[in-house]
Amino acid sequence: MKKYLIILITLSVALPGGAQTLEDYFQIAAENNPGLQAKYKTFEAALEKIPQANSLQDPTFSFGYFISPVETRVGPQRARFSLTQMFPWFGTLKASGDVATLNAEAQYQVFLEARNKLYYQVAAAYYPLYELEKWIELESDNAEILESYKTIATTRFENSEGTLVDVLRVDLMLKDAQTNLEILKKKKQPLVISFNKLLNQDEKAEVIVADSLMVSSLVINRDSLLTNNPILDELDIRLEASKKQEELAEKQGLPKLGVGLDYVIVGERTDMAVVDNGRNAFMPMVTVGIPIFRGKYKSAKKEAQLMQESYSLQKEERINQLISGYEMADFDREKHLDLLQLYDEQIAETQQVLNLLLSAYGNSGKEFEEVLRTQQQLLKYKKMKATALMNYHTAVAQLNYLTAKKY
């Protein structure tokens, strides 16, 4: 139970306001997300089934009144009280408790899987916000650069050193940049609402996104994919529970024993004097429940055996899904890592070309169209880099989910 208490404490810790890291948002989501809390409540409910499974049946108390008293040597029987307690076959309660305990353990693994999936969903909603912030920043910088280009082109045109076409061309690009900037700003609201709903907090709450994301070397041993995975652990536990369920079905098919006591109220005889006249009677009893109808016990045993086969097949299927999911996520990670390297090189070379073109334009007043084209190409590469960085970290988050990384 110690590990459950640790989880519960983790979920109940209140975080200071203004969380700024993704890990902080993970903790807020773990504390507030109703779906995750529902999984934990289901686990707690499963724990409550353990004492139910370990308990004996309630004793049976009965009372009977003789409308026509039964005459005995010591007097007429007036009423009877009976108290009986049934006991299952030896080991039945333990087997039943084991099944309930294992089911609770399995439900805890369901909770852990839901928590890990929630972390991935939070990350998958967080990184697009980073991409959007970078795009807004890049588009804003681009608009400022185009404004400066427009000023230069206008000045050269007024001094008869440039053409009106250059002014009109940069003005068209500037309007495009300003429109794109407005669209990007409008896009932020639905992304923020979606993110806040995962955290179950006010939809207008501010989401603070990191200014930059680091790319670090990630080494994940694929063998760890199949160790400590909540879904695989759940299936292993449910497989063990079904074996215990089979054992329980066998024991439930054995006789049940019961002990009891009858207390009979006897009236006094008035027609003669006898020894123990009117003395009430005690009668200890032993009861045996005979499981004659075997069909339900055989069926319960067969059900447990079929469930064992089902859990084994489910585990095999899940392993296949984990391996294929891991390979695709790892490919995405490596692909976007390569793209990031490519975009860095393209950004550096395009910036160099742009500097040369600007220098040439300052000297000759020509090639302004090429300056604008190169500027937009530079913007494109920077945006693609931001997108690749988002996709890289999303792939890493998926790998962390598949390998059940502990935060």
Describe the fold and architecture.
- The chain has helices spanning 2-12, 22-32, 34-53, 92-158, 164-198, 230-252, 295-364, 368-402; strands spanning 60-72, 75-87, 256-266, 281-289.
- With 407 residues, the chain is an alpha+beta fold.
- The protein has one domain: Outer membrane efflux proteins (OEP), CATH 1.20.1600.
- It has a 4-stranded antiparallel beta sheet with strand order 1-2-3-4, with no helix packed on it.
- The longest helix has 70 residues, at 295-364.
- The protein is rod-shaped.
- The two termini are 21 Å apart.
- Mean pLDDT is 88; it is low at 1-19.
Labels describing this entry:
single chain; 407 residues; alpha+beta; Outer membrane efflux proteins (OEP); four-stranded antiparallel β-sheet; 8 helices; 4 strands; rod-shaped
